Structures are given as C-alpha cells and as structure tokens.
Amino acid sequence: MGCCESKDTSQGLDKEKIKLFIQTDNLFSLKSIYRYAVHKDKKFDINSIRYKIDEQLMVTPLGLALLLGHAQIFTTIFQDMNGDFLLMESLFSQAGTSGLSVICLNNYLVLLQVYLPLYFSNLNPNNTSKLKPNNSQTLNLDSQDLLEKTKVFLYTPIQLSVECGYISIVSFLKAYASNITLLPPEIDLHYIDEASGNNCALISCKSNNYNMIKFLHSQCQADFNVINNYSENAINVLAIGSIENSTETSKCLEYIVEKIGIDVLYNYQETLMMLEDEKSISYVERKLKDKGINVTKKELNGQGVIILQKRPISNTYDTGNRFTFTRLFPELLKSTQESMRTSENTVK
C-alpha cells in the first residue's frame, strides 16, 4: 500500500511540475522533468495527463501548451514527447471548440505556423469542423427593447480572426490557403456562414474595423457585395455593428461607399435608423440627397415606418469575440501568473 501511495504521489508531483513548466514556458525544465519521469517509469505517457480547465474543457499537456500559445513547448511535446495531436483535438471538440479556433481567437501567429501543417496532416477538416456560436442583433419593433438576441450562427476560425481584427492571422491563413486545392471552410476567406449569410467581408463591417475592411478589400479581394440572409448589405451590417462600436464607423462607411462602391440607397431607412454617430448620419443623408432622396433620421424616427424581417430569438449563450483565453480560462491564467512569479522568486 505504501509503495502504491508513494508512486501515486510521485506521479502527481511530476504532473504538477509539467504543468508549471508549460505555464512558465520553461522548455529546459520541461525536458528535464520528462526525462526524469521516463527514467522512473519506462511506460510513462505524457498523454495520460489531464488538466481540468473548466467544467467543459479537459486538456492534455499538448493542449495546455496550445491554450497558452507557447509554440516551442507545443512543438517539443509533439515531436520529442509523443504528444497525441488527435487526442488533443478530440478533447477540444468535446468542449465545443478546436485548436485552430483557440489559436485564431487569441492571435497566436507563431503557433499557427507550427500548427497548420499538423492540422492538415492529422485531421480531415471536412469531418472535424467545430465552429463557435455567435449571436447577432437587430431591431425588434414588437419589443420595448431596441435590440434582441437572434438566431445562433457559427463562425469559422478565419472568420473569428476577422471579427477580432487579427490581420496577421488572416494574412497567413490566406497565403497558406493559396496552396490548397480543396479549401476547407475553416480557412476559406470567402466562406459564407449558412445561418447568417455573412462572409468575412460582412463580418469586418459588423466589427466596424477600418483596417480589416481595407485589408480584405485591397489585399484579399473579399466580396463586399454579398447580401446576407436578412437582406442586409455591407452598409446595413456596418450600421447594426456601430451600435456596439462606432469609433471608426464614419471612416468605414466612407470607404465602403467611395472605394468599394456599395449602394447607399439599399435599405437606406434601416441604415439611418441604426446609425448613432452624427458624422455617419450626416454622410448618409448627404449621399441620399445627392441621389434625389431628401430624408433625415429625425424624420424617420417620427414616422416610425421601418419594417424589418423578423428573426427568431436564440438562447442567451453569447461568446462573441470574448471566447478568448483570458476570459474563458481566467483561473488558468491566474495560475500561470502565480507560477511565473514563483519561478522568478526562485531564480532570485
């Protein structure tokens, strides 16, 4: 009994040390503890270790390295410690996400460069696609509230990067995709979400991100002329998104109209009703006047004539672009920071 307890205790210590060295990005110590563990037990398998992140997600050491974005640690565990890529992805899948989504949501560019070749050599993307729930918002004229949650739709990893504004991630995925014959939705810049009808171009408009809009248009030839499933064009989507983020709305609006050539007349009533930024409102009113339509937002508010397509209400689960490491795994982040401080104190 005593020997078994001693062995279990020893394995537990190795497990915690491995976690500590992954968290603190201490590659030298990780290699040392791994060699020590294998020396004690020839059958030691690093894939047998599990770390509970939250109620839904359990990860192996390889998955922990990915969550933290430690590319060198990730590579070493995979190549030198026989880290099981498929097992890692299976655990992510059970939690409703994927390694690629985590990487794209957290802007782990260096890790992405290591991960993508493994992803395509180990998985069949068409059979393992796990997309992240997101919610959109729209007017609800039958409700006292201006906005209501709407039908859940799903974003691919590249669409998540667009939503978050990670141009470097999108650029890398675009370049990588150019060498793939059968492009999976996960990294397809032109993929259209089935539920919402949004593509990367419309998602950038929803985010009101000027640099992303300009990048997608000038460098990626993204299609901004798509009309989504709610009969909204790029300007309508921009106006809806401006309710939460209006800092760059006027710049985005002018670029979409002047450079891309999106028709400001399309659903112009909805556009004016959704816009709150005075500069943007004045711009649309001026453009409409140039086309022979003399109307103002104030007049539309008084008339109450907007009729929008009804959309079903979804559940309250809303991750949006907040499904990131620092928000989804706060306890792990706290543990990582504490471990780093302990490591620094030890060095001193």
TrEMBL record:
The chain crosses the membrane at residues 57-78, 98-120. The keyword Transmembrane helix applies. Keywords: Membrane, Transmembrane, Transmembrane helix. This is Uncharacterized protein. It comes from the Eukaryota. It comes from Stentor coeruleus.
